[in-house]
Design brief:
Largest sheet: 4 strands, antiparallel
Number of helices: 12
Strand content: 5-15%
Strand order of the largest sheet: 1-2-3-4
Order of helices and strands: HEEEEHHHHHHHHHHH
Radius of gyration: 30 Å
Oligomer: single chain
Number of strands: 4
Helix content: 55-70%
């Protein structure tokens, strides 16, 4: 326990009053009161300001003093503890939320935040802006790149717009990143063929393959060419296990 009390903080006269563990209360002749952390850093004694006693409580001043001592013990500069992080060192989840709140409104804002929280933040949220590249973005999008192509594209665009918002070179980086992500993940299924392929897979799962053409007529595609040659064929590999793929190959003939 320290020597000072909340009552003493408000009533002590001019001077420097020790609480213990490097914490001092400085009371000036004008009556203003502020907290100081008296520490040794790089072989020299330093008094580091912790804030006004009219704003910072005794309990918070003790906590700040502890943070200063911990920073010194870890080899960090105690003067930078409460400075805002430089833009490139901020975490993606923090910047993503800020971007959505500052630039989008209403339903669009809610949808964008939901998309980031579901598909981007789990892998990218705790990374610093400077650490995010095509590799980690691709890893985050890969699970939905083919199974949810439209969602994947919208999520990719949100990630890139967040980086543009946060990085000084964001505008120049967007095109390069978008191309690199596409190169890593490959082409997405055509929407029409992709949906048709999903219908084929559902049909194969039900093992009622008597009339594939009738089921797929609304999509104006041939079911076998969709499975054999269309980009949607990747959905069979993504969604199906061995038996499903075998049935698909059997249907192709």
């Amino acid at each position: 326990m320290g020597k000072l009390t909340a009552v003493a903080v408000k009533s002590l006269g001019p001077g420097r009053h020790h609480d213990g563990n490097c914490l001092l209360l400085e009371v000036r002749p004008t009556g203003s009161r502020s907290w100081l952390a008296r520490v040794r850093h790089n072989g020299k004694r330093r008094d580091i300001g912790l804030g006004s006693a009219s704003v910072i409580t005794l309990a918070r001043a003790r906590e700040r003093c502890r943070e200063v001592r911990l920073a010194i013990a870890e080899g960090r500069d105690p003067l930078t503890i409460w400075q805002p992080a430089p833009p490139m060192a901020r975490f993606f989840n923090e910047v993503g939320k800020e971007f959505v709140e500052q630039t989008l409104k209403g339903k669009t804002q809610q949808q964008a935040l939901s998309r980031l929280e579901r598909y981007a933040f789990p892998q990218l949220g705790k990374l610093q802006i400077q650490s995010i590249d095509a590799v980690v973005i691709s890893d985050a999008l890969r699970p939905i790149w083919r199974s949810k192509p439209e969602t994947a594209l919208r999520t990719r665009d949100l990630i890139l717009r967040t980086l543009r918002y946060a990085r000084p070179d964001g505008a120049l980086l967007m095109t390069t990143l978008a191309r690199a992500i596409s190169d890593r993940l490959g082409p997405q299924p055509d929407n029409k063929n992709f949906e048709a392929t999903r219908r084929v897979i559902a049909l194969l799962l039900d093992d009622t393959r008597n009339d594939l053409t009738a089921i797929l007529t609304p999509f104006a595609v041939d079911p076998f060419s969709t499975l054999a040659f269309g980009e949607g064929f990747g959905a069979v590999d993504d969604l199906g296990s061995g038996p499903i793929k075998s049935l698909a190959l059997e249907a192709i003939g």
